[in-house]
Specification:
Layout: H1 4-14, E1 24-26, E2 29-31, E3 38-43, E4 48-54, H2 58-74, H3 81-97, H4 99-110, H5 114-132, E5 142-143, E6 149-157, E7 160-165, H6 170-184, E8 187-192, H7 198-209, E9 217-219, H8 224-233, E10 239-243, H9 246-259, E11 262-266, E12 272-275, H10 281-293, E13 305-309, H11 310-325, H12 344-359, E14 363-366, E15 370-371, E16 381-382, E17 385-388, H13 395-398, E18 405-411, H14 414-422, E19 426-427, E20 429-433, H15 437-446, E21 451-454, E22 469-470, E23 473-474, H16 479-484, E24 487-495
Parallel strand pairs: 7-8, 7-10, 8-9, 10-11, 12-13, 12-20, 13-18, 17-18, 20-21
Antiparallel strand pairs: 1-2, 3-4, 5-6, 6-24, 11-23, 14-17, 15-16, 19-22
Helix pairs in contact: 2-8, 3-5, 3-6, 3-7, 4-5, 5-6, 10-11
Length: 497
Amino acid sequence: MSSAIDLLKEYAETGTLKALPLGHFIDGAFAQPSHNRTLESFDPGRSMAFARFTAGTAEDVDQAVMSSRAAFETVWRDTAPVERARILQKASALILDNLDLLAVTETLDSGKPLQEALGDVRGAARTFEYYAGACDKLQGDSFPLGPDHIGYTIHEPVGVTAHIIPWNFPISTAARGFAPALAAGCTVVAKPAEQTPFTALLLARILSDAGLPDGVCNVVTGTGRETGAPLTAHTDVDHITFTGSVQTGRTVMKTAAEEITRVVLELGGKSPVVVLADCDREQALTGVLGAIYENAGQICSAGSRLVIEKSIHEQFVGDLAARVNALTLGHGLEKPDVGPVNSAGHLAKVAGFIDRARERGANIVAGGSVTHDPATGKGWFFEPTIVDAVAADDELAQDEIFGPVLTVQVADDADHALELANDCQYGLVAGIYTSNFARAHQLARRIDAGQIYINEYFAGGVEVPFGGNKKSGFGREKGLEGLKSYCKTKSIAARIT
């Protein structure tokens, strides 16, 4: 396997990587369709194209779905759970064997710092390891019907599953959908975001190398209009897992309704981090900083709202701003504290929020401007930003910016903090920093969000179910709850006398 050093040298010399695949992955192999249409993939740190990939069509999607349908009905649903487990465990090992290639590719495609991409790849390996262990433990219940009857349930795979993968965490999101679907006995057809197509393709090849039968996991690349929409509307798709915007999520739901297709939606958030006066200040400062500036704030569950008690507000925000101003920016391969945002269009969106806030007289205490990689003058960068004392009805407190922008809201006390935390259309996650453990759990119960972190943001891993309330969507991924999303329960009752 090529080392990270070799891959960095190759990219520096050629501007690309020779290991990047071209073509869809269908029926166990890469194949370039006859139409031979391609799109460019851009390195956000340089704002330059570094590779091309296949621009799929509805015909390509149909081929992939039909392949997965055949594999489901003839092979995978009847494969013994222990055999599925062995394949997923092998895939986990192969992901780690390909750690450097996957991480460097993820950095070039998404822009995130290499150290974050390495963590994402290791997390993907852990996800396959976790669900490998669940394959042969997916068991039903029996229920007492008296001496004359027997009753029990079995969990059956839902069938062909479609996965629409976002650009902010390509390999992580692919893994958290692929692994439980495959563990349950489902087949997979995936459409990665057109900004970040490559790690999903590489992951499909790794699964094939691990022994996954042909057709069980297919990946089709292209735009949302030309491949994503035909995939979610396909009549042979039994389930859709979608991660993306509320607007697109609505469209997916409407499309799914036509065929009564199962859906899991993760639609983003505007997650509060509640910091109370009795918190461990150092712990809270570190947690708040990581919650919003990891991956340049391009995280659905980012802690993008700091809800802080009034008595510590001024000092805490001052200390936080000093740390933010010391963060380094740069190309992801250089391992900066903060990398670029993913595209020119997204950079303009983030900048638009701050430009409008500045026009309203907002108090911007750190950052607030478009910038570039200081080493090259290139790339799509936005300064890590803090906007202080924002009103609850301001768009900065209500809308998902999806960038390195922290909105500060000042609370009179814990009850007011709870009110501010819940005063939002989203309900994905929330963080709480306090030394009062009873109060922490009281707030955790009353904050309307799918996941709560206490005294550590992004606590937990694949074992912890993840998903949102309100406009953050519905359904759960990760943990054993995520496995259930890909199962249908059948009840069986029989007379035995």
